[in-house]
């Protein structure tokens, strides 16, 4: 048994060396000239064959990390779970891995799984065919051989690529248990490459989705960036929801959405995803601070309402406490770095000030370093909630877009006229905090 192997010779495929980065070629040739096998593998091969520009180039070889280290002065060995060599060319890094093998005769030092079957360590070396069996999808088990420019395709990868099918190598249930992140990767490749997930590969996802809760939060953060900051956020989000993959990552907002699928939280998620994709397509910056602030706004709001009822804290203090609670809980599944969680808090606190800070106070708010992000969130809330928040958002829009003289007029007009009673929800709420159950 073993995986089916197809070899496509150099004149049977479209990959030319011109499409491979100079640094990747250097690494491939150096390994090969030193007597090792060397292949370009995975996304690099796949993307070139699909006419896309690869994000990065990965190399595999039968040289061990120590062998590689001896060949390249600019080599750093990294990784625990998978030991890898990074060959560093300034800002460009070529990742070089040694063929991975099976686990049968290995011991705890080199390989280890947990009770659910998840691989904790995977440093058994092997041959190329074993390496192919350890890869996730057939379209990623493509190897470009630098010695004769042929492509080795395992498990029917080249056919699946042409049929635009995402197919897991091996038994899907086992492979997802070994590494639940593969479920997210299936979704990400389907949207990025515009492919279908094969039925057998899609089938177990819903049942196994909860396993994602156990993935280390730091790794999850990296995956979340790839899912939502590469221009396919909306498609990934929708597919994740269909497979039950969203709630395990974002349990708090996931629960709100489950409770009321047409509520504010659900609408906000749609709006944020679409907004993020538009920003990416316009080459505007997208920051995890804004993204998380927007996604978690309604959980914060609900938590703040609960806290206010339970503890009798003021509106403002209840929000501050809620922000801490919500962030802490979120960071159990996705570790948002502090350089993003701190500005996320600013964006939240500014919501409260924007809601009541029209009139001449607006000038001061305008100078806050996080004003722009907070204002952007207010606009999204306007789209989601409509009603009063939409009116406040409209006022701010007029204020922000006006020139200096008009601005003063806008500020004065609102202060002198109806701003007090029109925008005084905090007053009402202070008298009757229990009346409003956050959503709906
Ligand atoms: P992209 O870089 O565009 O996200 P990629 O396929 O190159 O896509 P990487 O994360 O760079 O993805 O991984 C490189 C290769 O390593 C993959 O093509 C796949 O063969 C293998 N691989 C990556 N992650 C896993 C995983 N969780 N399980 C099994 N194999 C994996
Ligand atoms: Mg890659």
Task: Please sum up the structure shown.
The protein has helices at 22-33, 43-49, 65-71, 128-133, 157-162, 172-178, 181-192, 199-202, 205-208, 217-228, 233-243, 251-259, 264-281, 288-295, 297-311, 315-333, 338-356, 361-366, 371-385, 387-401, 404-416, 419-422, 425-431, and strands spanning 5-8, 38-41, 58-61, 75-78, 84-89, 92-98, 111-113, 119-122, 142-145, 151-154, 165-166, 196-197.
**What would the principal axes of the Cα set say about the shape?**
elongated
Mean pLDDT figure: 90
**Bound chemical compounds:** adenosine-5'-triphosphate, magnesium ion
Number of helices: 23
Sheet with most strands: strand arrangement: 1-10-9-2-3-6-5-4
| CA(first)-CA(last) distance | 58 Å
Task: Indicate the low-confidence ranges by residue numbers.
Answer: 415-440
Give the class from helix and strand content and strand pairing: alpha+beta
Beta fraction of the residues?
5-15%
Q: What's the total count of β strands?
A: 12
Radius of gyration: 26 Å
Work out the helicity level.
Answer: 40-55%
Biggest pleated-sheet summary = 8 strands, mixed
């Amino acid at each position: 048994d073993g995986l089916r192997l197809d070899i496509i010779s150099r004149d049977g495929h479209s990959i030319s060396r011109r499409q491979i980065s100079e640094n990747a070629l250097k690494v491939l040739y150096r390994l090969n000239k030193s007597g090792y096998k060397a292949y370009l593998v995975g996304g690099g091969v796949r993307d070139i064959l699909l006419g896309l520009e690869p994000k990065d180039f990965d190399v595999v070889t039968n040289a061990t990390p120590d062998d590689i280290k001896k060949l390249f002065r600019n080599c750093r060995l990294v990784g625990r779970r998978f030991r890898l060599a990074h060959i560093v060319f300034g800002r460009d890094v070529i990742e070089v891995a040694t063929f991975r093998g099976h686990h049968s005769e290995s011991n705890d030092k080199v390989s280890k799984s947990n009770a659910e079957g998840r691989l904790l360590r995977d440093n058994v070396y092997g041959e190329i065919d074993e390496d192919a069996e350890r890869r996730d999808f057939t379209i990623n088990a493509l190897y470009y051989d630098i010695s004769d420019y042929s492509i080795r395709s395992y498990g029917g990868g080249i056919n699946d690529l042409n049929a635009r099918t995402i197919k897991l190598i091996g038994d899907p249930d086992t492979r997802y248990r070994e590494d639940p992140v593969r479920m997210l990767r299936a979704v990400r490749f389907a949207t990025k490459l515009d492919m279908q997930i094969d039925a057998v590969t899609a089938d177990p996802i819903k049942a196994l989705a909860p396993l994602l809760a156990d993935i280390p939060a730091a790794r999850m953060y990296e995956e979340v960036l790839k899912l939502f900051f590469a221009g396919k956020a909306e498609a990934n989000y929708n597919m994740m929801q269909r497979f039950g993959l969203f709630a395990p990552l974002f349990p708090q907002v996931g629960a709100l959405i489950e409770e009321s699928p047409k509520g504010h939280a659900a609408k906000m998620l749609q709006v944020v995803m679409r907004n993020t994709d538009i920003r990416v397509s316009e080459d505007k910056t997208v920051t995890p601070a804004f993204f998380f602030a927007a996604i978690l706004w309604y959980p914060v709001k609900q938590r703040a309402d609960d806290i206010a009822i339970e503890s009798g804290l003021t509106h403002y203090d209840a929000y501050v406490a809620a922000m801490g609670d919500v962030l802490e809980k979120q960071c159990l599944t996705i570790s948002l770095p502090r350089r993003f969680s701190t500005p996320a808090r600013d964006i939240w606190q500014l919501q409260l000030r924007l809601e009541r800070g029209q009139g001449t106070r607006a000038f001061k708010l305008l100078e806050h370093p996080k004003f722009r992000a907070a204002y952007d969130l207010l606009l999204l809330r306007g789209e989601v909630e409509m009603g009063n928040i939409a009116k406040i958002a409209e006022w701010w829009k007029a204020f922000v877009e006006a020139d200096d003289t008009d601005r003063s007029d806008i500020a004065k007009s609102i202060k002198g006229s109806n701003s007090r009673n029109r925008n005084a929800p905090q007053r009402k709420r202070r008298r009757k905090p229990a009346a409003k159950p956050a959503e709906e």
